[in-house]
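# nightly structure sweep
# worker-07 picked up a monomer target from the shared queue
# config: single-sequence mode, recycle default, output format = structure tokens
# input follows
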Amino acid sequence: MIGGTESVRQVAGELLRIGAVRFATDEPFTFASGMKSPMYCDNRLTMAHPEVRDLITRCFTEQVASRHLVPDTIVAVATAGIAPAAWLAHHLRLPLAYVRGKAKDHGRRRKVEGELNPGQRTVVVEDLVTTGGSALDAVAAVREATGVVPLAVLCIFTYNHFGVCARFAAAGSPLVPLCTLNQLLDHLQARLPPGDAVLDALWSFQRDPGAWGRQHIEKHS
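# output follows
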């Protein structure tokens, strides 16, 4: 699923370094699904760090090359996927389009913005994949617009839960993340002492996110 290049292995460390990964074990974050999490990865913060932008662009480029993907255009998932998709499209000298969460109710009433033509091969870019709903919706929109299933979906981070990889594989567009929760845990384990509350919470969440959320609710009810 994830390439073994040295630059890809740097992504987890850089996300931690710039504070994109936030922890909250007592007052956890809530996903759109309602599920609780002791951490959140805010990849929008990468926009403020040119060296991290360069790293992400390089990693995405390596993943495209190593998988022998030959896209005609790059497609972003709005809104947070637009920036990293633009970095990759610029580096590869390819056109860029993006998919809205829903079609506009005015103007041209489009869901796909930019030029996307029948028969074009695409790579979809998202910043964060949790359950995969938004990115899979973009895959469907691209397939409808081009008649071609996207070659892959690239993302900066995924928790790698909720059967996301199987869902993307079933849709015909494999998920290619640069960083997963397991990789973040590897970095944190080297930094934090055994028994650290954050580390323990993350390991518990990694094993069973639903059970961790239920236990938190019960503990604080």
